[in-house]
Amino acid sequence: MLLSSPLRPAVGQQQPEHPPSVSHTNSTISATSSSSDSSSGGSNIHHSAHPQHAHISPTLHRQHYHSHQHHHTPISTTTTGPPPSSSSSTSSSASSVSSSQNFGHYGHSHRRSNYYQQQDESAITVEEYEELLNAEVWVEVPKLREYARHGISREVRGEVWLYLLEVQEAGRSKEVSTQKQRRQEFEQLDKEPNESSKRVRGEISRYLRKTQIASSRDLPLLFEEVISAYCNQNHQVEYYPAMVNLCAPFVYSIKREWDAYLCFEKMINMLDDHFNGESINEAVAKFMTLFHTCLPDLYSYFEEEEVDIKEWAASALQFVLSRELPLENTMRLWDTYFAIPNAGWIELHPYACLAILKHLKEGFEDLEQSEIRTMLMRLPHLDLDRIINEAFNLRHEILERQISDAFESIEETVAA
Prior knowledge:
Elements: E1 43-44, H1 94-103, H2 119-122, H3 126-133, H4 141-148, H5 157-164, H6 175-188, H7 197-211, E2 214-215, H8 219-233, H9 242-253, H10 257-277, H11 280-294, H12 296-304, H13 309-318, H14 327-339, H15 345-359, H16 361-364, H17 369-377, H18 384-415
Antiparallel strand pairs: 1-2
C-alpha cells in the first residue's frame, strides 16, 4: 500500500518496526541511530555484532574519548568528506542544474573524484574547529562547512551543527540574548504527555536497549520532551517510531535540550519541504531506476531472491538512513550533508544509499533472502569516508551519462 504523504503514516495507521510501504503522510522528521564506545564518562554506545557478516565491510575505526563535563558528548571520528569540485558539469535538464547549484562547490567535476586518498592531509583537528568557533565577532560559517565535509570531531559536533543548520547566527554580538530567547521559548512549549506518550516511551526504551547507551543525562526524558514538544506544536503530525531514530543524533550531539529540539525541527522541515514537492513514491521509483542502472547485477540478484528493495529504500530515503546505520555512521554522514548549503544534501542522499549497496554487493550475493533483509535493516559499521566518496562519484557518473544522452538525442534530431 502506497500512502499519500512523505514523512509519516496516515492517521490511525500503526507504523511497523520497519515500514513495509513506500510512503507516509504530512509531517516533519529527522534523526538517526548508531554506536560507539566511550573511554570514560559521557555515554557508552555498543551495537549488536554481526559476526556472520563481519567479512562484508571494514570496521569503522573508533576513537576513544572523554566526556564533556556532565553532558553527554557526541560520538564521531574526524575524517574526510567530499572535496571541492574543480568545475561544474553543464546539465541537460533544469533539475540537474538546480541540484548542482544546491551543492555549491561540493558539486560534480569533470573528473571522477578521489578525495578519500587525501584523508590524512585534510583531516581537521578539534583545535582548528575551536579556533573558528571561538571567534570574537563573527564565526566563518563557509569555513565551517569546508571543514565539516571531512567529518566533525565529537567534542564540537553539536556546536558546529547549530551553525550549519542556521540555528545559531554567525554574528556573536547577540549570541547570549538569542540563546536565552531560545531557551525561554522551548521552556514555554507544551511538553506534557499526550495520547502517544506510551508508544513514545516504548520505542525509546527499545532503541536504548538496542544501542546499549549509558549516559549521565536522563536520555529517555530528553527524547520524550523533544519529541512531545514537536508533536504538541504540530497537531497535524501523528507520532511514528522513526521519530526516535531521527531525534537521536541531535540528543547525543547537542548539549542543550532546546538546541537539540530546534535542530530536530529544522531537519524535519527540510525533509518535509522536499517530500512535499516529490512524493516518497516518486523518490523510490527514481531510486529503483538508479539502482538498476548503476548496479544491474545486484538488482537482478535481489529480484531472483525476491528481496523487496523498495521497502528498504522508502525507509532509507525518508529517514536519512537513521534506522539502518549505526549512530556514529549516521552522524558522520550528516556531517557532510549539513556542510552542503540549501539542503543540497537531499539530492546526494539517494547516491549514498546506492554507494552502501555497492560497498556490500559481494557480501549480499552470498546471502539468501531473509539474511539480506536482516542485513539491510541493520547495516554493519561502514567506512563512511569511502561511502561518501562513492556517492559523489556515482552522482557525477549519472549526470555525465544524462548529458551524453541529451547531446546524442539533439544530434539525432538535427540529423533527422
